[in-house]
């Protein structure tokens, strides 16, 4: 796919767009930037100079000679700015600090929010952020902001983050944390953050649309289009967990039935495993919500080791996931999908194989183009890294931002 992107010379976002082109290119010359953007050489020279003056971009040698003067090459200066990403969960908090290139330079893991009051926990979060800055010896003025990733539906208010605990649904996370740490705070759901992290760290150009399927307790889908996260009318794009994959399936708490989450999410896999008393005892499964992550990880690890019973459970889940992904691929004409999140950490290869097989055989556009399906970088920090890149993008490349919309719960509904 072409990376050419026409940028209007009078646009206030020109500098932002040029910085994004340099980010996605890795190394690039001024002439190449002019060709990709459609701007004049004079405009590129002016914009690049301002980026160099602000230490965001650095010259990094010369390209091969083509007979004339060798072209100087530009790249992002990774040490110019930093951002913090926080993955906010009931079981654990994961903080990462990234540089401008998205490289992780520091990390902290602490207990999750559990059932604690948000007013108490937000003060702890602010204290832990200060601890990270002191340990890494990073000047606060070089930190562009804090990104927060969390699971759940956006219930409307711009400063709210929907989590599992009712009190957190109405707590102004963004506004309160900003007042405590003195830095801009932005937030999004974990699937959107994972997609944005893949975009930034993977140096994916803004012209390459893709999706990231995220699995933790449930499923979410982050969709990147034109270098920004797709939002929808109420900022709730990507509720793939409530895509119906069996119209006669079990009732779902959302009010529908046969949703992907009820048939394939970790809780469903654990329930099936516990029904086999021998397997449950062998793996030490508990079945409580507080142990959901550990129980599912035990099943996934056993499947990755080749335990036939666990392989069957994960493959059953993967078939439902593949069916949901096929519908998304057909609906959106996707040609690239990443799998991210802790749910894919141990048995992700089984899910990748199932999705590749079904999409390769049944995608409506299979004769036109293939669909690349890959695991994102493994580990539990995907959404945290994405949250940090959310802060980087919010401040440094605002032209790619699509603002979250707010729809109040008491707004009139139409059918």
Automatic annotation (TrEMBL):
Entry's family note: Belongs to the ROK (NagC/XylR) family.
Annotated signal sequence range: none
Top-rank taxon: Bacteria
Protein name from the UniProt record: ROK family transcriptional regulator
InterPro entries: ATPase_NBD (IPR043129), ROK (IPR000600), ROK_cs (IPR049874), Tscrpt_reg_HTH_Crp-type_CS (IPR018335), WH-like_DNA-bd_sf (IPR036388), WH_DNA-bd_sf (IPR036390)
Molecular function (Gene Ontology), one example: DNA-binding transcription factor activity
Stored PANTHER family: GLUCOKINASE, ROK (REPRESSOR, ORF, KINASE) FAMILY
Naturally occurring in which organism (per UniProt): Labedella populi
